[in-house]
C-alpha cells in the first residue's frame, strides 16, 4: 500500500529518514531552489523515478493543497508499539520523554505538536487510533517533515496506555486549565509522559483522572485558554529546559 505526501521540506526529510519512496512527481516549470535540487539529487542517488507532470496533476493528487510543485508516492506509515518508544529511550541512555495526545482532531494542531515534539527531543508520540486526526499528508507538511524522524504509536485505549506507562515508572503529567500546579513549578525531569488534550474539551475525564499531576499555564488576559498546539509546545519546552539543566549539572 502507498500514499502521497507533498511539499518540498517534507519530501526532503522523508528522503533523509529512509522511508521508502516509490516515485517523485515534479510540476512542469517548477522553480529551482536548494531544496528542489536536493530532492532531485537524492532521488537520483537512491534511484527513485522522477516524473515531470502538469501542475494540474499535482493539484488533483493533493486535493488542491499547497504542494509547492512536489509530490512523492511513499509507502504507508508504519506505527510502532509503546514498548518501542521506551526501548528507544533506553538505547539513548536517557529517561523516557513521551508526548501523549488525547483526541487532537485538527490536522494543523497535530502537525505543529509533532514538529515541536521532535524539536524538543521526545522519544516518541502516542496518538489514539479512533476519534482523532491521523498522520496524513497535511500533518506531514504542517510538521515540516518532522513526522519522518519520529516514532509514533497508535493506541486504541489511551487510559490503558497511561496505566502501562505508570507501571514502567513514568510520571504522567496532564496539561489542563484546572490544574493546581503551575507548569514551571512541576518537576518535568526523569521518566515523563506529557499529555495534551483535545482542542475544545481538553483531556477526557478518564485520561485526566489517570494522570499523576495536572499542570496549567498562567492566563492573564481575557481569553481563558490557548490553542492546543501552542499550549503543548510551551509545556514541552519547559520540560526540555528542566531536563537540560539536570543534564548539565551531572
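^ C-alpha cells above, recovered residues below v
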Amino acid at each position: 500500500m502507498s500514499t502521497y505526501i507533498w511539499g518540498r521540506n517534507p519530501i526532503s526529510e522523508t528522503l533523509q529518514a529512509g522511508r521508502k519512496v516509490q516515485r517523485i512527481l515534479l510540476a512542469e516549470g517548477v522553480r529551482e531552489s536548494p531544496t528542489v535540487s536536493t530532492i532531485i539529487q537524492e532521488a537520483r542517488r537512491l534511484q527513485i523515478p522522477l516524473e515531470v507532470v502538469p501542475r494540474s496533476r499535482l493539484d488533483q493528487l493533493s486535493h488542491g493543497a499547497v504542494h509547492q510543485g512536489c509530490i512523492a508516492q511513499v509507502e504507508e506509515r508504519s506505527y510502532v508499539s509503546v514498548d518501542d518508544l521506551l526501548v528507544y529511550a533506553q538505547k539513548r541512555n536517557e529517561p523516557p520523554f513521551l508526548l501523549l495526545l488525547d483526541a487532537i482532531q485538527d490536522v494543523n494542531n497535530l502537525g505543529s505538536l509533532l514538529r515541536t515534539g521532535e524539536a524538543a527531543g521526545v522519544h516518541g508520540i502516542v496518538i489514539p487510533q479512533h476519534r482523532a486526526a491521523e498522520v496524513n499528508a497535511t500533518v506531514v507538511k504542517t510538521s515540516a517533515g518532522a513526522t519522518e524522524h519520529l516514532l509514533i504509536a497508535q493506541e486504541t485505549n489511551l487510559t490503558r496506555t497511561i496505566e502501562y506507562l505508570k507501571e514502567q515508572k513514568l510520571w504522567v503529567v496532564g496539561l489542563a486549565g484546572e490544574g493546581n500546579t503551575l507548569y514551571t513549578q512541576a518537576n518535568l525531569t526523569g521518566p515523563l509522559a506529557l499529555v495534551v488534550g483535545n482542542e475544545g474539551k481538553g483531556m477526557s475525564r478518564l485520561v485526566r483522572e489517570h494522570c499523576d499531576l495536572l499542570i496549567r499555564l498562567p492566563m492573564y488576559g481575557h481569553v481563558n485558554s490557548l490553542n492546543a498546539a501552542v499550549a503543548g509546545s510551551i509545556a514541552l519546552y519547559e520540560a526540555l529546559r528542566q531536563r537540560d539543566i539536570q543534564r548539565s549539572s551531572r
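The CA atoms of residues 8 and 36 lie 7 Å apart.
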